[in-house]
Amino acid sequence: MITADNGEPLHVLDLPQLYMKPSSQDLLKVLEILTVQPKTFGSVARDVVKPSFQSAEVSRYLTSIISSSLAWFDSDELREVVWDAAAARLSERAGRTAMPALSRVFNIPTSSGEEFALTLHEPSLTADNLGMKTWVSSYLLSRRLHSLFDSVPELVLSDHTSNNTVMEKPSIRALELGSGTGLVGLSFAILGGAAASIYLTDLPAIVPNLAHNVTLNSDILLKSNAEVNTGVLDWSVVPQPAPTKEERYTVILAADPLYSPDHPKWLVQTVETWLSRGLDARVVVELPLRDAYLPQVREFRQRMEDIGLAIVEEGKESGYDDWEGADGGSVEVHCWWSVWGWSEQL
Ligand SMILES: C[S@@+](CC[C@H](N)C(=O)[O-])C[C@H]1O[C@@H](n2cnc3c(N)ncnc32)[C@H](O)[C@@H]1O
């Protein structure tokens, strides 16, 4: 008795009660239904619709399973499986920071209106490793990347979905700063296909999962003839000697990179170090406009202008992060996206 036709939340008393000694199959079936789906920042229509339960009661129900001896089961193995599933459901309800490792699928549009899917692994979070999760501004930026390919003439590249021109050597060298789980950089690689190469970078603790996510998506990357590499690039370190003209990048991408007072300075000095000086050079950034970090956003803008960059295109948009608000719903995040080029070249 676990479905409601009228869409009303079900009560835990509709679930198999332990005093009735339910079978392990019945309990596992219910525990599967109680799985909390990881959010993908996408439209609600794409999410799997499952019966909803009154949530406060569910945690109590799960705890009762974990603390039960399940003495009527035939084997310790079955008990372990049920306890593990109940513990997993409980931690999924404890908020994103307490959630176990998870994988999410993100759907990214191409300019032809089709979409491709990227699967990203996110290890369980620790407070100081923000790059272990995918942030909403990277989702918004990935979804608008195809329009960048359309609007910047130098970026009109082969479209992997229509088997257009396949170039022998990548003509666009791109760099992503603070890639995290890699959503923006991987989207860029697939949209760029054989005509682009991208280097996804982050701090040492983040790069192993980033590299893992490249491997997870190797089929679609291979199909797109995309060239993707990963490595460490710490914005606080100024490379000596400075990169040569050939080592610089035509496109630099960054999503949600500002959350400490040092970040605007470090990020802009990294842009200045690595951005090529040509007419086609572009920096593409998407920043969430969180109140606490607005001074960093202003400082970033000023520092970009101070080194001679100017905005080519900009806009605002909103998305929903997967942190829960006080009411248990998703939190709306307002973001600012901007595309920059050298001002004397505009
Ligand atoms: C809020 S996360 C955003 C991750 C990803 N771009 C996204 O939007 O999902 C910020 C990222 O910047 C990286 N980061 C912070 N300081 C850095 C530094 N000094 N050098 C390189 N990366 C840094 C973090 O490790 C993290 O991956």
TrEMBL record:
GO terms for molecular function: S-adenosylmethionine-dependent methyltransferase activity. The keyword Nucleotide-binding does not apply. CDD domains: AdoMet_MTases (cd02440). This is Glucose-inducible SAM-dependent methyltransferase Rrg1. One of its GO terms (cellular component) is cytosol. InterPro entries: Methyltransf_16 (IPR019410), SAM-dependent_MTases_sf (IPR029063). Pfam families: Methyltransf_16. The keyword Membrane does not apply. GO terms for biological process: methylation. Keywords: Methyltransferase, Transferase.
